[in-house]
Amino acid sequence: MATIEELRQRIRRPLELEHQQAYPNTSVFGGLEKLFEAPHIRRHFAEVYDLLANYSQLSPEERSAKVQKALNLLDSKAPGAKVFIAEVPLESEFLEILALEEPEIPDEALLSLEVYDIKQNPLKTPLAHVQAATLAKDLPSKAAFGFQDIDAMLLTGKVNLGAQAVKKLAAIGIESYRDLLFYFPRRYEDRRILPSFAALGGQDQVTVAGVIQSRKGLKSQKGLSLLRATIQDSYGAKLDLVWFNQPWLEKQLYPGLSIIAFGKLKQKSRHLELQVQHMEVDDDSESLSTGRIVSIYQSTQGLSQAYIRRSVFELLKELGRIPDYLPKKILQDSYLIPLSQALHYIHFPPSEKDLQQALRRLKFDEFLFLELRILRNRDHENLGKKHKVYKYTTKEFSEHLPFKMTKAQSRVLKEIMDDMQSPKQMARLVQGDVGSGKTVVAAAAIYVSVKNSFQAALMAPTEILARQHFNNLRQYLFPLGVRLELLIGSMTKKQSDLVKAALKSGEIDVIIGTQALIQEDVHFKDLGLAVIDEEHRFGVDQRRKLLAGKPDVLVMSATPIPRSLALTYYGDLDLSIIDELPPGRKAIHTRLVNDSKRRDVYRFAWGEIKKGRQVYVVTPLIEESEAEVMAEIVSAEQMYADLLAIMPPECRLGLLHGKLSGSEKDEMMARFYRHELDMLVSTTVIEVGVDVPNATLMIIENAERFGLSQLHQLRGRVGRGSHESYCILIAGDRSKKTHQRLEVIEKYHDGFIIAEKDLALRGPGDLKGTRQSGMPDLVLGDLSQDIDIIEKAKELAEKIVATDRNLEAAWAERLRTELTRRIKLTSLREIM
Ligand code: ADP
Ligand code: MG
Q1: Least C-beta-crowded within 10 Å: which of 165, 319, 502, 790?
Q2: 522 to each of 302, 316, 461, 488, how far by Cα in Å?
Q3: What is the pTM of this model?
C-alpha cells in the first residue's frame, strides 16, 4: 500500500540518481521506462510517463532536459487528495486483503482507494477505484468494508435478529455478536445422507428423519414412563422411536410431524428400535438441519436447536466477512484458514475437512492468546519480600521431622529458598502427587519466613482442609516455638476477633484458614509468605486481597500434569515438581470390573464397613448440558437411592453433590470425617484432598467418564491410614478402548506417568468430551490433545513477543485489541 506521495518518491529517487551520474540510464534495472510498468504509476504520473516514454533511445543531452523537466513536474504537483493505492497479489477478495495487511490506514484518511493486482502484468485498470466524491456518499462507514465490530451488542448492533430472538438469546448469556459466533456446537451430526430405515442396522448411533405415524405413552410398574412413536421415512419404511421419562413429549409429537432424531439403535427380538437421545422438529425451510453436517448446540430450555442454528446463520450472513486479526502471511505460514471462514465452518461445516480446519484455526487462536498473555507477563519482575535463609534454619526444621525428606522434597525446598532470598517476589507452584509431601515443604518455607520475623498465611479452599493443614503444621512448627492460629468462618465472632487482633499486633506467626483470611477486617502485621493450596479454587479478587502486601507466594497443587503442559497451564508461575513419594507407601489395590460385578463390589464394601472402615462411592459429575447424552449415566442421586435399597439398613449413607451449598458440603464432609457416615456417595467434589484415614475403599462408578488423572486423584483419597486400601473402577462401557485406558490406573501408581499415558492414549475424541482443563481461556482447545497446535501457537507467540512485546506494530493493532477482549482469566502475576 502506498500513498501518492510515496509513489512520487519512488520515481523521484532514480531520476535524481540519473541526474547526478550524467544520464547513463542505469539507475533503474532494465531502463527508466521500467519505472512505469506498474499500471497505477502510469495512471497517476501520466505526464512524467509520457515525457520519459522513449528514454533509452535518447542522447544524454535530450535525457538531461527530460529528466529535469520530469523532476520539475514531480515537484510542482502539490500533495493532492489522499489516495491510497494497494499493490497486492490479488485474490478474490481484495478488501479482505486490505483489512488483513494494512490496518494502519485510518478510515478517515480513506478518501480514495485503488487496488491493483501486481501479479497481473502489464497494464490493467484498477480493480476497485473509489473516488473521494463517491466515497463520502457510498461508503460512509466501516461496514461497507466488512469492518464489523463483532463486539457489538445484539440489541443495539446493526444486525437485527428480532427482539424476541435477542431476548431468548440473552437468557442463555448471549448478548453480543461475539457471544453468538463463539457459541460453538457441542457436537455434530452427519445428516448429509439420511439412510432409509431399511438400511439401518449394524450401527450404534444413527440419525434418522421421518414423519410421525402414531405414538403411545406407557407407564411401567415402577413409575417410569416410556413413549413410543412410529415414524416413516420417504421410502415408506417404518421405525420405532422410544423416549424414557419424558411424558410431556407425547403431546408435542403428533402424527404428521416431521422429525429428526439421533440416538442408539437397539436390536429388539423382531425389530429395530431407536432410543432417542436428541430430537428436533424438522421445520427448516433453508435446511440448516438436514442434508448437511449439522451442528448440535448445548440444548437449553426454550431455545430449539433449529432456532440457535438459524440465529447464527442470519448473523453470519449479515456480518459478511469478519476481519481477521492475523495477517495473511502468518495464516499461510501456520497453515490456518481465515477467521471468517473458520467461524462459518465451525457452525456450518461443508465437510469434515472444513470442520477440522475451522477447529484448528479457532483452537490455534485460543492457544495463541493464552501464550501471548503468559509470555507478556512472565518477564515482569515484581519486588516482593526478601528473606534471609540460614542453613541452620532449615536444618533445625528438618531435625524436628520424624522422617528424612525425600530427594525431591529437598530439591524443591532449595528452589523455594532461592526464590525467597531474592528481592523478587516469589510466585512458585509446587506440584506433586497426593501424599508426596508438599505440606512439609511448605511448612519449612513458613518456618523460614517466621524466622525472618515475617508472618505467614496458608489458605485452603474448605474448612476441613484448613483444619487438616492446621493440625499438620502445628505438628511440624509448634515444637519450634512458632505461634499458629486457625481462622475459619464457623468460629464465633468473639473467637475470630481475638485471632484478628493477635494477627494485627503480631502475636501470631502463622495463620491458617479459608476465605475467612481475606475478609476486610483481617490485617497482618507483616505478611512475608502466602501459601495457597489448590489455587484454582480461588477467585482473582480473593487472591488479590491476600497478596496486597506483596508477600512471596507458594501455590500447592496435586494435579500432575506433564511438564510440557504445565508450562502452558501455569505459565505465569515458576514450577517445582515433587516427583517422588516418601518411602514405604502402600500401593492401593486397584481393580477394574464390569458393571455386571456391581453387586459383588458392594458386598465387599459392606465387608469393609463391618470392619469399621469407610467407603467413598464416586459418580461422574453431570453437566446439565450433557443431560441428553448422559441419559444412561447413573447420577449421584439415583446412585444414592439405589444404594439405600441395596445396602443393609444399618449402613449410614451420605450424599454429596455440586448442587449443595459450600457449607452443606463442608458439613456432609465433616460428618464423614467424624465417622458418622459409613459410605459417602459423591460427585467429584471430594477431589480436593481431605484426609479421612479410616476410608479404605473407593468405588468409582462409570469410571470411563473420568480422565485418568482425575481417577488417580480420586484414588489418592484412600490409603491415607495404616489399613490396606482399595480402589474399584466400575466400567459402564465394555469397549476395548475403555478397558485399555482404565487399565493404566490399575497398573500404575505414579501420577506423572499416568498423566503421560493419558496423553498418549487419548485419540482425537469428541469435540467436547470429558475435559478437565478448567481454563476459561480454552473453550475448544484441549491441553492434552492439541500438543502440536500448542507448539505452533507458542512458537508464534514467542516470535511476536520477542520483537514487539506490547504489540505496538501497526499490523498488530487488531491482534492487541482481540487479546484484551479475550483475556478472561487474570493470572497470578498480573495481580501481584
Ligand atoms: P501432600 O501435601 O503432598 O499431599 P503431605 O505433606 O500432606 O503430602 O504428606 C503426606 C504424608 O506423608 C504426611 O503424613 C507426611 O507426614 C508424610 N511425609 C511427608 N514427607 C515424608 C517423607 N519424606 N518421609 C516420610 N513421610 C513423609
Ligand atoms: Mg496436601
Answers
A1: 502
A2: 46, 51, 17, 12
A3: 0.57
